[in-house]
Amino acid sequence: MAKIIIGFTGLIASGKDASKKYLEQKYGAKSFRFSTILRDILNRLDLPINRDNMIEISTLLRNTFGQDLLAKVMAKDVAAAAGDIVVADGVRRLQDIKYLGQIPGFTLVSVDADPKTRYERMIIRNENEGDSQKTFTDFQDDHERETEKTIPEVMAAAKYHITNNGSLEELFAQIDKIIIKLKE
User: Fold this and answer.
1) Euclidean distance between CA atoms 184 and 182, whole angstroms
2) pTM of the full predicted structure?
3) What is the reported pLDDT for 132?
């Protein structure tokens, strides 16, 4: 079987991470997140891991070393990964697709959910410092940030689209169908 490489794109708290974790657990997928690079830098600098700091670090790196810097790093890591299934989580820009799309076996998958559902998930998971205190207006404002504005365009370029408004079982069933198609 040829290597399957799935890039997940989607708005904040749409279910990309749950999808990635499912592929890791059920299929033994190797995974990479664009935000891991940023989290590693913030940890090393002993700075809070929150959306503001990740956006600031991302912007500084891209403005200093090129807009495609993170895309190149991610594509290099994904291409070198061993395993039958590899996941690139957090595809946000068309440059990301440009580099990942050059790797044989790459498929872009969008994950989406209604805004209220995504907001509730963000509050519960509290992945970034301060997420649990955000209002729905704060959550909506986050979608206007530089790192989020290009995501709908990237989602439109996806080959497969997952709607994640239901249970985890419903999400996983959609992922399984995609894996079956990709294995054919």
Assistant:
1) 5
2) 0.89
3) 80
- Contact predicate 71/99, CB 8 Å: yes
Tokens 């592929």 sit on residue: 23
Structure-token pair, residue 40: 């590693």
- The pLDDT, as a whole number, for residue 1 is 63
pLDDT at site 125: 85
- Residue appearing with tokens 């279910």: 15
**With a cut of 70, which residues of the chain have pLDDT below it?**
1
The 3-class secondary structure across the chain, one letter per residue, is CCCEEEEEECCCCCCHHHHHHHHHHHHCCEEEEHHHHHHHHHHHCCCCCCHHHHHHHHHHHHHHHCCCHHHHHHHHHHHHCCCCEEEEECCCCHHHHHHHCCCCCEEEEEEECCHHHHHHHHHHHCCCCCHHHCCHHHHHHHCCCCCCCCHHHHHHCCCEEEECCCCHHHHHHHHHHHHHHHHC
Task: Give bridge partners of residue 8 from the DSSP assignment.
Answer: 89, 109
The pLDDT tens digits of the residues spanning 29-43 come to: 999 998 889 999 999
Q: How many domains does the chain have?
A: 1
CATH number, domain at 42?
A: 3.40.50.300
Q: Domain containing 87: what range?
A: 4-183
Which pair of structure tokens corresponds to residue 132?
A: 């649990």
pLDDT at 112: 97
